[in-house]
Amino acid sequence: MKLPIYMDNNATTPVDPRVLEAMLPYFQGKFGNAASRNHSFGWEAEEGVETAREQIAQCLNASPKEVIWTSGATESNNIAIKGVAQMYKDKGNHIITQVIEHKAVIDPCKYLEQNGFDVTFLPVDKQGMIHPEQVREAMTDKTILVSIMHGNNEVGTINPIREIGRLCKEKEVLFHTDACQTFAKLPIDVEDMGIDLLSASGHKIYGPKGVGCLYVRRKRPRVRCEPIIHGGGHERGMRSGTLNVPGIVGMGKAAEICREHQAEEIKHISALRDRLKKALFDRLGDIFLNGHPTQRIPNNLNISFLYVEGESMMMGIHDVAVSSGSACTSASLEPSYVLKALGLGDDLAHSSLRFSLGRFNTIEEIDYVAERVCATVEKLREMSPLYEMAQEGIDLSTVQWAAH
Amino acid sequence: MAYSEKIVDHYENPRNVGSFDKNDALVGTGIVGAPECGDVMKLQIKCNEAGKIVDAKFKTFGCGSAIASSSLATEWLKGRTIDQALEIKNTDIVKELSLPPVKIHCSVLAEDAIRAAVSDYKKKQGVEEAATAGAH
User: Of chain A residues 350-369, which have a CB less than 8 A from chain B?
Assistant: First the structure.
């Protein structure tokens, strides 16, 4: 077993060797500009791009023509939200989203809010889920777009997007979903689920960074987005700029591998995740699972360890890469807005760790990580004044703390 | 964030973790911070009859820097008089541990914990205090 161990796959994934192999020819021999229509270099590059488009479309039950290449999911979300808002502003100015979206959705929505749009940020339940009735109740005759993520990156909760998508169809409102954590890794069918726009990223599926895509429906209805980047009219006019051919080829290959092994990977990774969860819950008391117990992405485990602080836990397991909702790990010194939205107190948010597994994790690694986490939590509890007070029977919520 | 060797050392081998009986007249206890802020420090001093600190202990909920700051504080407190204890400044802790700017509040908390412990001790000893440390 090699150290350090990587368990932060909701942040990014390593490039699969098969993906790298597929990309390499496009850096040198097949280096052409996919928009060069008059020579073989251009044709080769274009062929690579179109194969990749097909590979993406197959993961969604979509047509390749409905796939727009971008620089990543942040850009895809920006085009979907700001592009739709601009294009449909005569129809209405109301957008519905929710509080635990990724910042790449929240921030474009806030930007629109400052520019004459009304945005409803729906609250989530204690498990991080949005319910279709909430969306229905929030809709007005001005609503033009609903943007609800598929799987949450921090707490892993999967939203009922089929029900939300069908509701949007019924109300003739466009539906966008940020599927960064689920694209190619969970079954997605844009027809069945009523999805009009979908964002995905290369580097979350063992592909390269710097490439992503946006699915934009062409029929029933034909969705149009005002471009954010102008110049050249590439990608059906929605995203100009010379295509990142090696990246696109890599993302296509990565999607294909994920799709072909989808069922077995879901089984494998969720078994590893459940093994880790069991080991932690068997040995440690006073720990809580954040997010939904069953409706969650297979690779995510987010746990609050009462009485110990997240960053100090990460220091104790320094040869394991995970992430924390603790303020001490963020630049803002604010604990995770996602955990807070689930109703966790700041204290529990500070005490959380997110383990996110991937294709390359092994049982041996799981057992090592479980042991390291338990030993660290036990050690830190021994030096925690909160643990001591709790052992003495003091209810910590009744203590008058001097906030600083 | 990359930590200095001294922070890592105090984190890996914390000095003087533990508790004294808080009802002991010779023990001063300071608890500062709040769980919502991600740091709570409990620092205790134990004095002899002459008012000299013979032992110190801490327990801290917080990041590595908070643990290291309080661990270091207990080391520095031993052997000092009560008045000398108050001479420990947060800037001394910042310097000794090479705390990054974003972690300076951990050293402030440690200084507050010392003041709170000394103040508790003085109260038990019946010493009137001119002023108490304010919240920050």
Answer: 350
